[in-house]
Write a structure and sequence with these properties.
Layout lengths: L3 E4 L5 H12 L3 E6 L3 H13 L4 E5 L5 H15 L4 E4 L14 H28 L4 E6 L2 H5 L5 H21 L4 E8 L9 H8 L10 H12 L10 E4 L5
Parallel strand pairs: 1-2, 1-4, 2-3, 4-5, 5-6, 6-7
């Protein structure tokens, strides 16, 4: 029986790397995007070239009704997922005194509310499979340590850790593991190139991480070998914390 994994925010960056790594590991991939449909279709084509099935779902993870509608329809058509990777996120950095309500709300809605919006419609179908399942969320070093100019992002990513740990307790008896990966500074479009040179001085490994290195941690947590690992946060940050 094929095992399908939904990866949110999979059209680029870390999400794309996760989708391709999981495809190499033998999973069928549901490639989610919000707006970059063309890029998501390209990722799906790469998944198929690796011998796995792929399809694209497009919706805004901050829109609760849109999530429920799209995910319920997909599960109805294709069956429950083996796994979910909650990766989609945005940043709207600003010093807190200058941070607008919109900058706060957009980050909280997209990065934290999406935990509920995406997972809540999927949990009972996963439970009803009566088989092991995997959920991996993406937090951040900012969610563990905080980061200047990122009170909104740090709040959302810290909330993801708390929600992940609580859900892990609820689903453990169903043999569905729930874990979190917390990347540090990773070389993606979201990273300001000017910050990298200064930040690297603080990183013990003296370099930024690659999306594939985050994907490797996610792949382990999604594997059968990780069946006794749940309620954990794995940092991929070059030793920064």
């Amino acid at each position: 029986m094929s095992r399908s994994v939904l990866v949110t925010g999979a059209s680029r960056g870390i999400g794309r790397a996760i989708a391709l790594r999981l495809a190499r590991d033998g999973f069928d991939i549901v490639v989610h995007c919000r707006s970059r449909r063309e890029e998501a279709e390209a990722v799906a084509a790469q998944v198929r070239s690796l011998g796995q099935a792929a399809r694209v779902l497009s919706f805004d993870v901050s829109d609760r009704a849109a999530c429920a509608t799209a995910l319920a329809a997909d599960v109805e058509a294709h069956g429950a997922y083996y796994g979910v990777v909650c990766n989609a996120g945005i940043t709207r950095d600003n010093a807190f005194p200058a941070m607008s309500g919109e900058e706060w709300d957009n980050v909280i809605h997209t990065n934290l509310d999406s935990f509920y919006n995406v997972l809540q419609p999927l949990i009972m179908p996963m439970v009803r499979r009566r088989r092991p399942g995997r959920i991996v969320t993406l937090s951040s070093l900012s969610g563990i340590a905080g980061n200047r100019g990122q009170t909104n992002y740090s709040a959302a990513k810290a909330g993801i850790i708390g929600a992940t740990k609580a859900l892990a307790l609820e689903l453990a008896k169903r043999d569905i593991t729930v874990n979190c990966v917390a990347p540090g500074l990773i070389d993606t479009e979201m990273v300001n190139a000017e910050l990298i040179e200064e930040a690297v001085k603080q990183i013990p490994l003296r370099r930024v991480g690659r999306p594939e290195e985050v994907a490797a941690a996610v792949a382990f947590l999604m594997s059968e070998d990780a069946g006794y690992v749940t309620r954990q946060v794995i940092s991929v940050n070059g030793g920064l914390l």
